Amino acid sequence: MIAMAAAMLTIVLLGVGFAAVPTSSCGEGPVEVACPTDPVGPHGRSVSDTFFFVHRPLGENGSITARLTSMTGVITYPPPDHDEIVPGLVPWAKAGLIVKDGTAPGSSYAALMVTGGHGVRVQHDYVHDVAGGPGGVGAGSPRWLRLTRSGGTITGYESADGVRWAKVGAAHLPGLPATVRVGLFAASPGDLTLQRTPLGASLPESRFTQVTADLDHVSLDGAPAAGWSAAPVGQMGRTDWERYHRAPGLVRSSGTFSVTGTGDIGPVAEGGHTARSTLIGLAVAMVIVIVTAAGSRSRRADDAGAGGRILTAKAVVIGTAAFLTGLAGAGVVVPLGSAILRARGISVLALPTLTGLRLVVGVAALLAVAGVFALALGTLVRRAWVAIGVAISVTVLPYVVAALPLLPDDVSRWLLRLTPAAAFAVQQTVREYPQVIAHYAPSGGYFPLPWWAGLAVFCGYTAAALGLAVLRPRARRTRWR
């Protein structure tokens, strides 16, 4: 039990130590400022909500219509030479119409947009995405867009001529107030490329991008008489390009609205810390559990005998002790470490309460299965040092080399599919979203299997090891030499 207590303290102390030690800072020129934090969306998760917004009030029933005639943009210092600013749009640059519950970042919204490379879309509340017609806009191929509101339902339509309309999709926004903001928007996420390391691992690099959209024939129905307001949602205008070349904003000329913006609207896929960051001591704690379980001895020499009853009893004891160790350690460090990081002004991705509980229980289950796995190996090979070496080599080692990163992404993914290290997926609290540009790899916290599937892989290995240990003929008890 002393070893299990040490494992629990390892999880807590390393996690709290990581949270308390300064690891990053933010500044504007020579002045250090508080690092920005991500807003929280309607579903309790951290989101990106940065775009330029031209808006007016809209009541419970009404619509906005506009013709999008042009989308242009810039990408700063792209490969291969990273030495120039080039014209172009990233695939998920977006511009169009949006209905939003106020202008606060993280508030509920529904948007109808044309993208740089994915056609027309209806997106709402950061995680939902519906595809419309393919293609972009140009001088000879404008896109008419229309958003209608009926209570809490927002519906998007597109048209090539402003006469024949096709429905793209609808969104139901519960709790939408009687008066919302409606208008035009523009956003452009960073341009992502991957830099290869000598061993083949990939390191993400993101560059600033900007989009300018020209819209005309803008009309509103059901909106009170009011002028247009124009301002960014979220932070922008801080790069040299925006300061000295083209600032975000609105330019109106002869009925045309030219809207320039940067940023993105969607779930946060990269940046900031996750709850997994506070579990930095988990791998070390697993080593302690493995050493303890593989080296455990019985006063009797036939643990695998008597129909496996003794081995089963030991597995229950070790599994329970390891489960409680993980439950206590993760139950303390996840909320405490996250609170320390936030108190220091460091962004931590928010997650729903049930997801946090699943994370804590998953970590406990991971340590429990690891303990039983090491016990079974120790009984099977009857050399504690061999069992410990094998257990660490197929659990902790694949996880470490995949997470650092050291190996090519595909190799890391296969290691975390085929080995018992797949069970480390219980730490995953972030999801992949096709509409968000990100480096979806184990080094970024994205495991190739769902948490339950990864844990099932480890359970399968453990069941096989237990079965072989039970079937092996009686012999000496586990030895260290």
UniProtKB/TrEMBL annotation:
<feature type="transmembrane region" description="Helical">
    <location>
        <begin position="277"/>
        <end position="295"/>
    </location>
</feature>
<protein>
    <submittedName>
        <fullName>PKD domain containing protein</fullName>
    </submittedName>
</protein>
<keyword id="KW-0812">Transmembrane</keyword>
<feature type="transmembrane region" description="Helical">
    <location>
        <begin position="384"/>
        <end position="407"/>
    </location>
</feature>
<feature type="signal peptide">
    <location>
        <begin position="1"/>
        <end position="19"/>
    </location>
</feature>
<feature type="transmembrane region" description="Helical">
    <location>
        <begin position="451"/>
        <end position="471"/>
    </location>
</feature>
<keyword id="KW-0732">Signal</keyword>
<feature type="transmembrane region" description="Helical">
    <location>
        <begin position="315"/>
        <end position="336"/>
    </location>
</feature>
<keyword id="KW-1133">Transmembrane helix</keyword>
<keyword id="KW-0472">Membrane</keyword>
<feature type="transmembrane region" description="Helical">
    <location>
        <begin position="356"/>
        <end position="377"/>
    </location>
</feature>
